[in-house]
Amino acid sequence: MEIFLQLLINGLMLGGTFAIISIGLTLIFGIVRVVNFAHGEFLMIAMYGVYLMNLQFGLHPYVAMLPMFFLMFALGAVMQRYIIQPLLSASDEIQIFATVGVSTALMNAGLMVFGADVYSVDMSSAVVGTGMTSIGSLTINNGQLMTFIVSILLIGALDWFLKYTFLGRAIRATAQHRDAALLMGVDVKKIYIIAFGLGAGCLGLAGGLMAPQYPVFPTVGTFFVLTAFIIVVLGGLGSLHGAFLGALIIGVVDSLAGYYIAPDLKEVVYFSIFIAILIFRPTGLFGAGRGSE
Amino acid sequence: MLKFNNVSAGYGGAEILRNVSLEVKEGEVVTIVGANGAGKTTSLRSLCGLIPLTSGSIEFQGQQINGLQPHEIVDRGITLVPEGRQLFPFITVRDNLLMGAYKKTARKDAEKRLEEVLELFPRVRERLGQYASQLSGGEQQMVAIGRGLMSQPKLLMFDEPSLGLSPLLVSQVFDIIRSIVQSGTTVLIVEQNIGHTLRLADRGYVLENGEVVVDGTGEQLLDDPHVKRAYLGL
Amino acid sequence: MKKYVSKIKGGAVAAVALTMSFSAMADINVGALYPFSGGLALLGNESFRGLEIAIEERNANGGLRGEQIKLVKSDAVDAGQAVGAARKLTSIEGVDVIFGSFSSSISFAATQVAELAAVPYFELGAISDNITDRNMKYVFRSNPTAKNFAEGTIDAIFKVVAPTYGVDAKDLKVAIIHEDALYGTTVSQFQKDIAKEKGLNVVQTLPYSAKAVDLSSLVLRLKGAGADVVLQTSYQNDTTLFFRQMREAGFKPKALIGAGGGYSMKDTVKVVGEKNMEGVLDVDFAQYLMNEAGAPGIKEFQATYKERYGEEPRSGHSLINYSGAKIFLDALEKAASLKADDVREAVMAIDLPIGSTAAGIGAKMNENGQNIRANAAIMQWQDGELKTVYPEAAAVAAPKFPQHP
Amino acid sequence: MNITQPQNYVSLLLLLLMLVFPVVAGSPFVYHIFILVFSYAALASAWNVVGGFAGQLSLGHAVYYGVGSYTATLLMINFGISPWIGMVAGALLASVISVFVSWPCFRLRGPFFALASIAVLEVVRLLVINQHGLTGGSAGLAVPLQQGVEWMVFRERWPYLVISFGLLSAALFVSWKIKNSRLGYYLIAVREREDAALAVGVNAVRVKLAAVIISAFLTSTVGSFHAMYFTFIEPGAVFSLELSIQIAMFALIGGLGTISGPVIGTVLVLPLAELARGWLGDFADGFHGFVYGVVLVIVVLTIPRGLVGQFGARVGALINRLPGYKEPETVQPSTSTLTHVQSETLGQPILVAEHLHKYFGGVHATNDVSLTLKEGEIIGVIGPNGAGKTTVFNQLSGFLKPTSGSVRIRTSYGEWVTPKSPAEFAKAGIGRTFQIVQPFADLSVRENIMIGAFMNTDDHVEARAIAAEVAQLTDLTDQLDKVARDLTVGGMKRLEMARALATRPRILLLDEVLAGLNPSDITKAIEIIRRIRDTGVSILMIEHIMQATMSLSDHVAVINSGSLLIEGEPEKVVKDPQVIEAYLGKEYSHA
Q1: Shared-domain flag, residues C158 and C257
Q2: What is the pLDDT of residue A20?
Q3: CATH fit for domain A2-121+137-280, picks 1.10.3470, 2.160.10, 3.30.420, 1.20.120
């Protein structure tokens, strides 16, 4: 029982990390309707950014993630404006290849600039985000706990933004009915740029939050990106709460399957869940009726 | 206030509007009638900037507006209540209405405006928290009109406001449009249900195959043989 | 018209001949086939630096057979590209010999091409045993293989862990975990076989993906099984992840034994922390803290490396590549010519005792071209340094475990 | 294939040139590059059958490649079976797997299909690693180096070149065959407009499955060959996402859905990438990968249709100036179906709908509609916008399933049937048009009509003859070679009719074929509809243009708010006050 509880906690905490990565993806997926295969590389850039800020200015990653949010926002906005926007009316495969191209280019750019070395932020003198919290015999990693909490706060903040501001409402409206949004005077192109920027910006936060846990190297994005896609489809396109719940589910599945089945088969388990969801409930577990068809 | 000068427009090479000229004066109610496929909706969509013109020009308050982005046209004070309502399905009724006040000049008075609109549609008030997709057809039409009013338009356009509604609801919708007209908003209606429309309108244009074949006051058109021919082939 | 054509032809031929003779006179072309990009880039590059230093050293001392050696770099990310890279080296670049290749799958593909082109291929770092099991005439390997690594890790249990704790090795519960790609699978398979042969009590064998972002459930399984000794074959990311999550779960086995990879890397210590790596055993190509007596030239190499690249070596891959390259370069110097058969003859004649190179290995090739005097060293992390603890001749420190006072 | 046509002989010459070039150049590296080019071009062509022709963006094709690699290698290692046999066995196994993998995924669109295919690839790769007892796990398998033709391992390089060229030729031949067959047309039809394809009797699932099977088969053979060529396979390399993306990318850069595109894409990009690795590799690690990515982005931004899509027509026209060019022969229409058929069952019911009800959520869209169409009759269906006429039509042609009630059709053999799917409806003799025209925009008018004709024949020539004949009936003869997207509205509407007619329907459902036409087009169309009826086809038409309805219809049915308001002779119906009210509003009828 104790092991089960620990597994559950581990899974939920891992889910927090998955959530912070998936939130941005679901925003972009749900609003701009583009599958961004470069999402993992955006995460890589954010992680390098946090590393550099720590190295140069000694910023704690949790501080560095704030400027990183804005830098990533700018990067996402540029990508939307100059690469995705011209392809909005193009077919799906064209859009996918564009983002695959960006992904390849960025990954190799990372290699050119930083080399293949593995860098990690020096957390030895940091007070926040390191160490463990024990509850009885159960333990929680403080950094992961922080990630978990911030992902909840981020979802809360985005939720508030989308519900209670004119811009947020316009973003939701554009996602649901592009033409009608146009008639309301919404500058749809601008909305897409903002949405893409927000999605990328979330990764800026993810970069800071993950720094105490994971080192950075050019291919780090590929470790996370497929899982993020699974989570987004599982949770339902564009649904923030769905992405969060999906992330927790996949985290727990990862943890339990790794223990009760086999560590090398846990991906098989959640990829199978993913395929089943696509086939039998393409709107995702929590989708609001729009999905893969 | 609004002027079409020899406008031609269409989709993908097919010309649906041909050399259409028409005019709406401030404070007027003007209607465009005609059979299905005659180009009524196309004329409204080209006015909103959703379809580029192939020739001609559109002027609003003396300035050329064709070629502007749709949101720029909304900013000038032109709002369309589209055919088939086109509400945002998974957004609450309240937020749907507030979306109507998206343009910068309408935002600060949005809450006040919302109250006014709700006074006009008391039934909508009870539904404020529901998703638009959960409403009945009539309620959706009310929300769509309300949403159009939220932008405080100078020119409000309706595309087939009676579509898919029961006769009783159609009468209600036209009563509402009438009250909007009385409050001083200029209105342009495209409608198939010409009985109601022509009675309401100051003037009307009859479109046939993308061209204006007759125009005149509402009363004149009611008796015009073109109208009956366009609809019933008599 | 005809005249004109022949004139052009003549000119072209002359030009080609000129460039060919030019390169023939000036240099000996030597191929360097490594993964320089993609996921394997880091260690591929580190391996290459060892070769580069060996070549530069040789050039500074008058070159090979009186000529300067020119290194031709060729990048291969996977087996498919390795074939292309090897073809290019053997045909277009016309190299006399090829050095490589860090990755076993790259080596498999590239050696095949070189063998058919009759260009000697010197493997300096890939560890899959089968590479030299294929009756190839011109493929030689200087470094220890996966089997040597596995033997080393089991040796570490018998010769280091059990004596230090003063227990019988067969009473220890052993767990084998490994990343599930080529490297981890190969080493762990030998580990399982040898452990069985020697009567060890293996309680868990758990493969996992090197791309895993969470190993906490694996740690809990080890903890639940009460493993005393954990053998891990891993890259860097999974090593650091495993250490972090082991700490979080409060799992403290008597000994951790790695088979190179992530366990040998400075960066791993940087991420994991010195005190968390304290006492961890590592079986790998020899690293830098070796008794100079058992590894002549190691200090010098280290100094050269630091001067050349401005940093400490990132792992022992450079050293083993350096040592291997030197062994083969010496053979090339002595060969009758650079023809493949002469090279083979010279290589087969090499006879160096263990402990005579900078990496501590000796050199003597068997019929298959495998160096039978390549052994893996047993090292231990002590105070943030990887110190050789076994064999005694090369040892610089005695083994000690923080868990064992 | 006519060898004297410039496009044909130029293509063949270029292919041969590619085979001769490495032999002349003689360098092993050049050999290697061309072996890679041939085999990757074969992979790209195979992928193109699914990704281009069928429009299903698969990023999991490495599954089939891997199955080929592993089957051939395992059979060789364990049973000493020649890889030539292993190649066929692997291809068959890959075909079977493709059915299981693709069937459930077909209803997924665009990115979702792509994601599902990636997930399948990951699962397969992980399972192959996990089942190391069978597959050797991630340690991979080394191919035994037994040389000789039967083992597909050679010391020389030219046999590899020949084999890879053979594989490419096979893939190209299959692509060319598909493109010029019924299957090819059906694939395009399903990709472009699935509804329109269904309406002419195309079984969309079966057509897509055929494409997937063929593609998997071809992909697998290349996988087997590569295993023998590289002599070492491991799951990470053969079941790889990068490989899947790469072959798709070659096809995309060359031009999706074309025959030559995948080859041209591979020929340009692959050697460039190999050379770039050499040139740029020294410059900085990763630089060539960076360039690769940037080039891909630039290509999709500037020539998204690929090289062939963008320049193919112009180059094709240039090549046609070479000697030997002949216009394709015009096929003389046989006039068999145009003649008036005297049917013994004229005037008897042929289509019966009884008590149709349809609910969408809470909306009662069709309320107890019953209709009977007699053979040789024209019924006009009128009613205001949004009254539910098209909903009724969709139920009569199988596109919507009625909530309750039935639709029966009398076949040419006199039996009454109740079809289940749109394709079955089409086969039972119902042809339909769509209110919003659904042309296959990039195909010519002739090809559009042929897709309809293929319902009854798989012979190309016969389909052309039917197209010519139907075109004559619908006044499209002089537009036959025009691309459908260039037609006028009137032309498109007539094309809708022509495509439906090409299926030789006995009942034709026309949904507003006159809307949006100018007066002269309308006159033309009315005449055509009369002609069609005279060939023995019974017609049910929705129409707004009253003059036309009045003059054409034997009967008029009025639908309002989902129910049948009145049915009867045109003159009576139109004077009915109910009808006037429905159309013009209550106020008007009182006026």
Answers
A1: yes
A2: 94
A3: 1.10.3470
Q: For residue D33, which residues of chain C lie inside 8 Å, CB to CB?
A: 84, 87
User: ipTM of this predicted complex?
Assistant: 0.83
Residue C292 lies in a domain: no
CATH (domain of B174):
3.40.50.300
* Helices D261-281/D28-48 angle, 10° precision: 140
Q: Please report the sign of the dihedral spanned by the C-alpha atoms of residue B66, residue B71, residue B75, residue B80.
A: positive
Of residues C37, C78, C108, nearest to D285 (C-beta): C37
Amino acid A291: pLDDT: 38
Question: How many Å apart are CA A285 and CA A67, to the nearest integer?
Answer: 34
Min Cα separation B195/chain D (Å): 4
Domains held by chain C: number: 2
pLDDT tens per residue, range A150-195: 999 999 999 999 999 999 999 999 988 888 999 999 999 999 999 9
Query: pLDDT confidence of A237, banded at 50, 70, 90?
Result: confident
> Residue C66 is part of which domain span?
4-144+300-348
C169 and C203 share a domain?
yes
**Over the Cα atoms of chain B, what is R_g?**
17
Q: Is the pLDDT of residue C324 over 50?
A: yes
D281 closest CB neighbour out of C36, C80, C180: C36
* Stated pTM of the model: 0.86
**Are residues A232 and A243 in contact, defined by beta-carbon separation less than 8 angstroms?**
yes
Distance CA D185, CA D192 (A): 11
pLDDT at B232 over 70: no
Q: Please check whether residues C104 and C126 belong to one and the same domain.
A: yes
DSSP string spanning D321-373? TSTT--PPPPPPPP-GGGSPP--TTTTSEEEEEEEEEEEETTEEEEEEEEEEE
- Number of domain units in chain B: 1
Q: Which domains does chain D have, with CATH numbers?
A: 6-319 (1.10.3470), 349-440+505-588 (3.40.50.300)
Contact D105 A97 (CB under 8 A): no
Across the interface, of D114, D127, D293, the residue whose CB is closest to A268 is D127
Co-location of C153 and C133 in the same domain = no
Q: What is the CATH number of the domain that holds C307?
A: 3.40.50.2300
Position with higher pLDDT, D195 vs D107: D195
C222 near C251, Cβ under 8 Å? yes
For residues C211 and C337, membership in a common domain is answered with: no
Domain of residue B10, residue span: 2-232
Q: How confident is the model at residue D581 (pLDDT cuts 50, 70, 90)?
A: confident
Cis peptide before D260 (omega within 30 of 0): no
Round to whole Å and give the CA distance between B196 and C202.
89
Q: What is the pLDDT of residues C29-79, one digit of tens each?
A: 999 999 987 777 888 899 999 999 999 999 999 889 889 999 998 888 877
Alpha-carbon distance values, A282 to A292, B134, D56, D108 (Å): 5, 22, 17, 8
User: For residue D249, which of D292, D309, D291 has the smallest C-alpha distance?
Assistant: D292
- In degrees and rounded to multiples of 5, residue B216 shows phi and psi of 175, -170
Q: What is the pLDDT of residue B14?
A: 66
What would the two tokens of residue C392 be? 């005694």
> Domain for residue C360, yes or no?
no
Assign D10 a pLDDT band (cuts: 50, 70, 90).
Answer: confident
Count CB neighbours of A30 within 10 A: 26
CA distance to C13, C123, C387, D215, per residue, from C91 (Å): 18, 19, 44, 35
Q: Write down the pLDDT at residue D336.
A: 52
Chains B vs C: touching, with 3+ CB pairs under 8 Å?
no
Q: What are phi and psi for residue A176, nearest 5 degrees?
A: -90, -35
Q: Please, which pLDDT band fits residue B220 given cuts at 50, 70 and 90?
A: confident
